[in-house]
Amino acid sequence: MRDILPDVERWRERGEKVAIATVVSMAGSAPRGPGAKLAVSESGELSGSVSGGCVEPAVVHSAMQVIKTGKPEMLEFGISEEENFEKIGLACGGTIRVFVQRLDW
Description:
Largest sheet: 5 strands, antiparallel
Shape: globular
Radius of gyration: 14 Å
Number of domains: 1
Structural class: alpha+beta
Number of strands: 5
Distance between the termini: 16 Å
Low-confidence stretches: 80-87
Order of helices and strands: HEEEHEE
């Protein structure tokens, strides 16, 4: 959290709403482990990372919705043999769960 905190504080000082996405669990291989965070500002600025690849844009999209609605979301990304490339997943074959919430202070 410390690595994203300066950016979050700057955005809040500007009066922007902010969402934080946090990896809450993982199974198998994943680019980032539990506790990894991505902050998203109302204007679309980013700080930190929860995964990379095609997962991160999906998390940003969710964060923008959470900023608007205030309703948190739990996201899961992974891929099985049957799914191949039909859904957003991790190229490394693991699964992650990401909790996205708006900061209300």
